[in-house]
Amino acid sequence: MKTKNGGGAAAERRLLPRWVLLCAFSFGLGVLFCDRFGAAPEWQNPVVAAAQRRRQERELAISEDFVAKPKPASDRDVMREVANTHEAIQYLDKTIATLQMELAAKRSTHELLGSANGMSQQRKKAFVVIGINTAFSSAKRRDSVRQTWMPQGEKLKKLEDEKGIIIRFMIGHSATSNNVLDKSIDDEDAIHHDFLRLDHVEGYHKLSAKTKIFFSTAVALWDADFYVKVDDDVHVNLGMLVTTLGRHNLKPRVYIGCMKSGPVLADKNAKYHEPEYWKFGEDGNKYFRHATGQIYAISKDLATYISINQ
């Protein structure tokens, strides 16, 4: 009996380490399972589960904010975007200007076709209309022109009737009515009959507007092949001018003169600053080729274009 009891105690001692090892293995497996697959269900530990859920929500919000709000760009990137936007606006403005010019050209063509179909019966046919730009104070210059290259009296009328060459001093009026300056021009015109009065207020800073009004007025009065603008301090070789124009009579959109090109003045402190310089290119670029203002000629289609779109 003693032997049997001693054998049972020995068996129990042998089973005890096995149970300890089994419990330790189960505990380790449980820890591993929780680490890999998340926290215990809420029903197991509601306080810990709620705290973990709030922490996960905060982490998710921080992650979303990071994705929705990228890192601020550098100043260089901002300036590049501003420059690109400015270039896009300039390109759009140039495109609109081009479309407007094309539309104006179509209108000019329609006007020319209408003239060819009999709408210009009231206008006198001519080969060239020469407008001599003059001012109230330029009486001596006008006398010099009359004594040199501009015919007078019957010779001037004969030149118009036989050759179709119209020559007129072009001048507007003073800013006030019944001015002594206007009266002096009226008296001079009564003697020579060689003025073309324009609906324009005289002024040095309005010369471009005066030139446009001259072309518009001349187109309305004469159906000419060419229109010439010349200053009153230029003495013209009339025969050479007519011969030169005759060589280009059958060409469209003729623009003849002493052509030049100068830099676009973007500096605001420059005397002849161009406010819209960017329309002609970047800083330092040159204007398109154009004639100097002393004398130049344009054909009928260009003069009509100016008349319609001045």
UniProtKB/TrEMBL annotation:
Membrane disposition: Single-pass type II membrane protein
Domain DUF4094: residue ranges: 20-108
GO cellular component, one term: Golgi membrane
Listed cofactors: Mn(2+)
GO molecular function, one term: beta-1,3-galactosyltransferase activity
Known pathway: Protein modification; protein glycosylation
EC number: 2.4.1.-
The keyword Transferase appears for this protein: yes
Superkingdom of the organism of origin: Eukaryota
Alphabetical list of Pfam families matching this protein: DUF4094 (PF13334), Galactosyl_T (PF01762)
Main location: Golgi
Alphabetical list of InterPro entries matching this protein: DUF4094, Glyco_trans_31
Key words of the record: Glycosyltransferase, Golgi apparatus, Manganese, Membrane, Signal-anchor, Transferase, Transmembrane, Transmembrane helix
Location in or out of the cell: Golgi apparatus membrane
Family affiliation: Belongs to the glycosyltransferase 31 family.
The protein, known as: Hexosyltransferase
